[in-house]
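REQUEST FORM: STRUCTURE PREDICTION
Request ID: SP-0412
Submitted by: Lab K.M.
Chain count: 1
Length (residues): 219
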Amino acid sequence: MKKLIYVFLFFGLISCGPSRYIVPLDKGEHAVSASLGGAMIEFAGAPIPIPNTSLGYAYGVEENVTTFGNLYTTSMMYGVFQLDGGATWRFFGNDSTAWGSSASGFVNMAFDKWEGNFKAWPVLEWNVYRFLGNTKSYASLGLGSWFELSGKKAHDQKQNEHVLLYPQAGITWVRNAWNFEFQFRWLAPGRANLPNAVTYLGFGGQGAAGVYFNFVRRF
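STATUS: Completed
RESULT:
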Protein backbone atom coordinates (compact mmCIF):
# COMPACT_ATOMS: atom_id res chain seq x y z
CA MET A 1 0.00 0.00 0.00
CA LYS A 2 2.85 2.39 0.85
CA LYS A 3 4.47 1.96 -2.55
CA LEU A 4 1.10 2.31 -4.33
CA ILE A 5 0.42 5.59 -2.51
CA TYR A 6 3.96 6.76 -3.27
CA VAL A 7 3.64 6.09 -7.02
CA PHE A 8 0.13 7.53 -7.08
CA LEU A 9 1.19 10.79 -5.43
CA PHE A 10 4.30 11.30 -7.49
CA PHE A 11 2.60 10.64 -10.82
CA GLY A 12 0.01 13.18 -9.77
CA LEU A 13 2.55 15.83 -8.75
CA ILE A 14 2.31 17.58 -12.10
CA SER A 15 -1.36 18.17 -11.32
CA CYS A 16 -1.02 19.15 -7.69
CA GLY A 17 -2.09 22.79 -7.80
CA PRO A 18 -3.46 25.59 -9.98
CA SER A 19 -1.51 28.45 -11.53
CA ARG A 20 -0.84 31.18 -8.98
CA TYR A 21 -1.44 34.93 -9.38
CA ILE A 22 -1.71 35.19 -13.16
CA VAL A 23 -2.53 38.84 -12.47
CA PRO A 24 0.00 39.88 -9.79
CA LEU A 25 -0.98 41.42 -6.47
CA ASP A 26 -0.60 45.15 -5.91
CA LYS A 27 2.73 46.30 -4.51
CA GLY A 28 2.79 45.64 -0.76
CA GLU A 29 -0.37 43.49 -0.87
CA HIS A 30 -0.55 40.15 0.97
CA ALA A 31 -2.71 37.12 0.22
CA VAL A 32 -3.49 33.71 1.70
CA SER A 33 -5.06 30.95 -0.35
CA ALA A 34 -6.57 27.47 -0.26
CA SER A 35 -6.89 25.23 -3.32
CA LEU A 36 -8.57 21.94 -4.17
CA GLY A 37 -8.31 19.78 -7.27
CA GLY A 38 -6.11 17.72 -9.53
CA ALA A 39 -6.07 15.18 -12.34
CA MET A 40 -9.33 13.44 -13.16
CA ILE A 41 -9.41 9.74 -12.28
CA GLU A 42 -11.98 6.96 -12.27
CA PHE A 43 -12.93 6.07 -8.69
CA ALA A 44 -15.67 3.54 -7.84
CA GLY A 45 -16.91 3.91 -11.42
CA ALA A 46 -17.25 7.70 -11.26
CA PRO A 47 -14.98 10.48 -12.60
CA ILE A 48 -13.51 12.62 -9.82
CA PRO A 49 -10.50 14.94 -9.51
CA ILE A 50 -7.67 13.85 -7.24
CA PRO A 51 -8.48 15.79 -4.03
CA ASN A 52 -5.15 17.57 -3.75
CA THR A 53 -5.31 20.46 -1.28
CA SER A 54 -2.85 23.23 -0.55
CA LEU A 55 -2.47 26.32 1.62
CA GLY A 56 -0.45 29.28 0.42
CA TYR A 57 0.87 32.77 1.05
CA ALA A 58 1.86 35.47 -1.45
CA TYR A 59 3.27 38.99 -1.36
CA GLY A 60 3.32 41.76 -3.97
CA VAL A 61 7.00 42.71 -4.11
CA GLU A 62 6.53 45.21 -6.94
CA GLU A 63 3.61 46.31 -9.08
CA ASN A 64 4.27 43.51 -11.57
CA VAL A 65 6.06 40.94 -9.36
CA THR A 66 4.43 38.63 -6.81
CA THR A 67 6.24 35.96 -4.80
CA PHE A 68 4.40 32.93 -3.40
CA GLY A 69 4.78 29.66 -1.52
CA ASN A 70 2.42 26.73 -0.97
CA LEU A 71 2.20 23.73 1.35
CA TYR A 72 0.36 20.64 0.04
CA THR A 73 -1.76 19.30 2.85
CA THR A 74 -3.15 16.17 1.16
CA SER A 75 0.37 14.89 0.47
CA MET A 76 1.26 15.36 4.14
CA MET A 77 -1.60 13.06 5.14
CA TYR A 78 0.14 10.26 3.20
CA GLY A 79 3.64 10.89 4.48
CA VAL A 80 4.95 13.16 1.72
CA PHE A 81 6.04 16.66 2.75
CA GLN A 82 5.53 18.75 -0.38
CA LEU A 83 5.82 22.48 -0.99
CA ASP A 84 6.62 24.96 -3.73
CA GLY A 85 7.96 28.48 -3.99
CA GLY A 86 8.48 31.00 -6.77
CA ALA A 87 7.26 34.20 -8.39
CA THR A 88 5.02 35.63 -11.11
CA TRP A 89 6.18 38.49 -13.34
CA ARG A 90 3.78 40.47 -15.52
CA PHE A 91 5.75 41.59 -18.56
CA PHE A 92 2.90 43.03 -20.64
CA GLY A 93 -0.08 45.17 -19.62
CA ASN A 94 -1.20 46.63 -16.31
CA ASP A 95 -4.38 46.99 -14.28
CA SER A 96 -5.71 49.60 -16.71
CA THR A 97 -5.24 47.62 -19.95
CA ALA A 98 -7.78 45.03 -21.12
CA TRP A 99 -5.11 42.46 -21.99
CA GLY A 100 -1.98 41.30 -20.22
CA SER A 101 0.55 38.51 -20.04
CA SER A 102 2.63 37.03 -17.24
CA ALA A 103 5.16 34.29 -16.60
CA SER A 104 5.66 32.23 -13.46
CA GLY A 105 8.65 30.22 -12.34
CA PHE A 106 8.76 28.05 -9.26
CA VAL A 107 10.22 24.86 -7.81
CA ASN A 108 8.05 22.03 -6.49
CA MET A 109 9.77 19.93 -3.81
CA ALA A 110 8.80 16.69 -2.07
CA PHE A 111 10.28 14.63 0.77
CA ASP A 112 8.89 11.27 1.90
CA LYS A 113 8.98 9.99 5.49
CA TRP A 114 9.56 6.33 4.64
CA GLU A 115 12.94 6.35 2.91
CA GLY A 116 13.95 10.00 3.17
CA ASN A 117 13.84 10.55 -0.61
CA PHE A 118 13.93 14.17 -1.81
CA LYS A 119 13.09 15.43 -5.29
CA ALA A 120 12.62 18.82 -6.87
CA TRP A 121 10.93 19.80 -10.14
CA PRO A 122 11.31 23.24 -11.78
CA VAL A 123 8.12 24.57 -13.38
CA LEU A 124 7.62 27.40 -15.89
CA GLU A 125 4.25 28.82 -16.92
CA TRP A 126 3.15 31.49 -19.38
CA ASN A 127 -0.35 32.96 -19.38
CA VAL A 128 -2.33 35.62 -21.22
CA TYR A 129 -5.42 37.13 -19.63
CA ARG A 130 -8.25 39.51 -20.42
CA PHE A 131 -10.25 41.52 -17.93
CA LEU A 132 -14.01 40.99 -18.19
CA GLY A 133 -15.72 44.28 -18.99
CA ASN A 134 -15.03 47.01 -16.46
CA THR A 135 -14.34 44.57 -13.62
CA LYS A 136 -11.11 43.14 -12.20
CA SER A 137 -12.32 39.61 -12.97
CA TYR A 138 -10.50 37.94 -15.87
CA ALA A 139 -10.26 34.90 -18.14
CA SER A 140 -6.89 33.33 -19.00
CA LEU A 141 -5.15 30.91 -21.36
CA GLY A 142 -1.70 29.49 -20.83
CA LEU A 143 0.94 26.80 -21.23
CA GLY A 144 3.00 25.21 -18.48
CA SER A 145 6.09 23.01 -18.52
CA TRP A 146 7.14 20.64 -15.76
CA PHE A 147 10.81 19.55 -15.80
CA GLU A 148 11.87 16.11 -14.57
CA LEU A 149 15.57 16.25 -13.68
CA SER A 150 16.00 12.64 -12.55
CA GLY A 151 17.27 9.92 -14.88
CA LYS A 152 14.99 7.35 -13.25
CA LYS A 153 11.31 7.16 -12.34
CA ALA A 154 9.46 4.83 -9.94
CA HIS A 155 10.90 1.31 -9.47
CA ASP A 156 14.26 2.43 -10.98
CA GLN A 157 12.83 2.55 -14.49
CA LYS A 158 14.59 4.79 -17.00
CA GLN A 159 13.09 8.26 -17.29
CA ASN A 160 12.73 9.11 -20.97
CA GLU A 161 10.50 12.18 -20.68
CA HIS A 162 12.06 15.20 -19.01
CA VAL A 163 9.57 17.91 -20.07
CA LEU A 164 5.84 17.52 -19.47
CA LEU A 165 3.57 20.18 -20.95
CA TYR A 166 0.06 21.25 -19.98
CA PRO A 167 -2.18 23.76 -21.77
CA GLN A 168 -4.66 25.43 -19.45
CA ALA A 169 -7.58 27.84 -19.27
CA GLY A 170 -9.29 29.53 -16.36
CA ILE A 171 -11.51 32.25 -15.01
CA THR A 172 -11.07 34.33 -11.88
CA TRP A 173 -13.88 36.24 -10.21
CA VAL A 174 -12.59 39.16 -8.14
CA ARG A 175 -14.90 40.36 -5.36
CA ASN A 176 -13.66 43.04 -2.98
CA ALA A 177 -10.88 41.29 -1.00
CA TRP A 178 -11.57 37.81 -2.41
CA ASN A 179 -10.61 35.93 -5.59
CA PHE A 180 -12.54 32.81 -6.63
CA GLU A 181 -10.73 30.85 -9.32
CA PHE A 182 -11.52 27.89 -11.58
CA GLN A 183 -8.90 26.34 -13.87
CA PHE A 184 -8.85 23.48 -16.36
CA ARG A 185 -5.76 21.69 -17.70
CA TRP A 186 -4.82 18.95 -20.09
CA LEU A 187 -1.91 17.33 -18.28
CA ALA A 188 0.88 15.67 -20.28
CA PRO A 189 -0.80 15.52 -23.72
CA GLY A 190 0.92 13.02 -25.98
CA ARG A 191 1.74 10.72 -23.07
CA ALA A 192 -0.20 7.45 -22.69
CA ASN A 193 -2.12 7.38 -19.42
CA LEU A 194 -2.31 3.57 -19.17
CA PRO A 195 -1.09 1.37 -17.60
CA ASN A 196 -0.90 3.24 -14.30
CA ALA A 197 -1.62 2.85 -10.61
CA VAL A 198 -5.02 4.46 -11.21
CA THR A 199 -7.19 5.13 -14.27
CA TYR A 200 -6.52 8.69 -15.39
CA LEU A 201 -9.16 10.32 -17.60
CA GLY A 202 -7.65 12.15 -20.56
CA PHE A 203 -8.35 12.60 -24.25
CA GLY A 204 -7.76 9.79 -26.72
CA GLY A 205 -5.92 7.77 -24.08
CA GLN A 206 -3.39 10.54 -23.53
CA GLY A 207 -2.62 12.55 -20.42
CA ALA A 208 -5.29 13.56 -17.94
CA ALA A 209 -7.84 16.32 -17.59
CA GLY A 210 -7.41 18.40 -14.47
CA VAL A 211 -9.78 20.74 -12.63
CA TYR A 212 -8.92 23.14 -9.81
CA PHE A 213 -10.64 25.55 -7.46
CA ASN A 214 -8.65 28.25 -5.66
CA PHE A 215 -9.82 30.70 -3.00
CA VAL A 216 -7.68 33.76 -2.30
CA ARG A 217 -8.06 36.35 0.48
CA ARG A 218 -6.13 39.55 -0.17
CA PHE A 219 -5.19 42.08 2.51
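NOTES: Residues 1-11 have pLDDT under 50 and may be disordered.
Reviewed by: T.R.
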